[in-house]
Amino acid sequence: MTSKARWSVPALICVLIGLLLVACSEDEPTEPADDQCTITVTSPTKGEVLIPGNTTVINWTAPSNITQVRITMFRGELEVGEIIAVTENNGTYSWVVEDFGAGLGTGYFIQVAELTAHNICTGVSEMLILQAE
To answer: Which of 10, 18, 39, 104 is the most buried (most CB within 10 A)?
Structure first.
């Protein structure tokens, strides 16, 4: 004789599993409206020379519904370093420039991004140059 046990997963566990495994939800992620997810890096600007050890100010504009951002540096498509993991979305961050071991030269970009559960709002500077003083 075989017995069968019946059990159910409590909603709280399902939510936790949903967060960890992106499960237990039939809702599909939706893209935010363009005006809700537009970040523009306004400085540094195209061709600006950044010197490691000097301070530069990173400025951006972003919708007010974004509360915090992450700022990273790329060389080409490769992320070379995290400038700051989390900072307030107040449109400005003062940074002591470093090359993150990627060397001097051209092809650098700064990315300002807001991360959410279903999408990433980002803005990228134009190409920058790192050079010695």
So the answer is: 39
Query: Checking DSSP bridges between strand 105-115 and strand 120-124, what pairing results, if any?
Result: antiparallel
First to last CA, the chain: 83
Residues 6+ apart with CB under 8 A from 40: 60, 61, 62, 123
Q: In degrees, to the nearest 5, what angle opens at C-alpha 91 toward C-alphas 43 and 50?
A: 30
As a whole number of angstroms, the distance between CA 67 and CA 119 comes to 15
Domains annotated for the chain, with CATH where assigned, are 29-130 (2.60.40.10)
68 alpha-carbon distance from chain centroid? 10
| Prediction pTM value | 0.70
| 75-91 confidence digits (pLDDT tens) | 999 999 999 999 999 99
pLDDT, average across residues 49-53: 93
